[in-house]
Amino acid sequence: MTSMATVSEWIEGARPRTLPNAIAPVVAGVGAAIALDAFSWWRSALALLVSLSLIIGVNFANDYSDGVRGTDEHRVGPLRLVGSGTAAPKVVLTAALAFLGLAGVLGLVLVAVSGYWWLLAMGGLCILGAWFYTGGSKPYGYYGFGELAVFVFFGLAGVLGTVYVQAGKVSWAGLACAVAVGSFSMAVLTANNLRDIPTDVESGKRTLATRLGDRGTRRMYVTLVSVPYLLTVVLGIWHPLVLITLITAPLLLKSLRAVGSGQQGRALIPALRDTGLAMLGWAVLSAVALAFQVV
């Protein structure tokens, strides 16, 4: 019998450790907008609220969809509200739709005040992408496209959208930040799916990790977390202050050791946290560097 979830359980079910994936793209986008002399604090705040609402919505949507399919019955990691029986599926579904709806409303306000109506299409794709990641009869997350989706939505769309609603254009620095943050987001999901390979194989969830296998997934993680720092060096040619983001690399040392040494299960959970923190630190420092660049 399903019990009533407590506030702390709802917070855990929202997966707060994933919030850097929503905050980092907006922060990096703000830095790129400042570099274009187009910063607007209230447009930035709206973009952040849209991004946060979207990721909380997708987390609850995943909880609901995976829970009713039975995918989460033996999952290692944060509390799953439906899978654990902590909350009724319909209640979690309502929470998911509420946050996705909030993201839509806030996004509509942002588009209306910026006047770039074509961005409604991008916002609609983001919401559809959030739902169909694990929702619907053929969720793309079950076919190995989850990593590509987070790169597009929390990398390219998140960063470049934040820049565009303020500046009406994008820049090469903004594009570099978008690819870097997208690679970090992919790395977070890769670490998550690496941890879940055994249970995903058992439940028939064909993530990219299950397709690449354990060794291939570990190699992909290392490659993905290397991309932002390679871009840092390239971007530093034109914006030397951006090189300060290199100081976030040590945050990944424990994660790289865990992934590289073949650790599994719960031993990989800190890798998700540390990758997210490295991403957030990189975004904050890159934003500061771009804001203080010499024109």
UniProtKB/TrEMBL annotation:
Coiled coil: none annotated. The keyword Membrane applies. Keywords: Cell membrane, Membrane, Menaquinone biosynthesis, Transferase, Transmembrane, Transmembrane helix. InterPro entries: MenA, UbiA_prenyltransferase, UbiA_sf, UBIAD1. The chain crosses the membrane at residues 46-62, 91-111, 116-134, 140-165, 172-191, 229-253, 274-294. Its main location: membrane. One of its GO terms (biological process) is menaquinone biosynthetic process. PANTHER family: 1,4-DIHYDROXY-2-NAPHTHOATE OCTAPRENYLTRANSFERASE (PTHR13929), UBIA PRENYLTRANSFERASE DOMAIN-CONTAINING PROTEIN 1 (PTHR13929:SF0). This is 1,4-dihydroxy-2-naphthoate octaprenyltransferase. It comes from Amycolatopsis sulphurea.
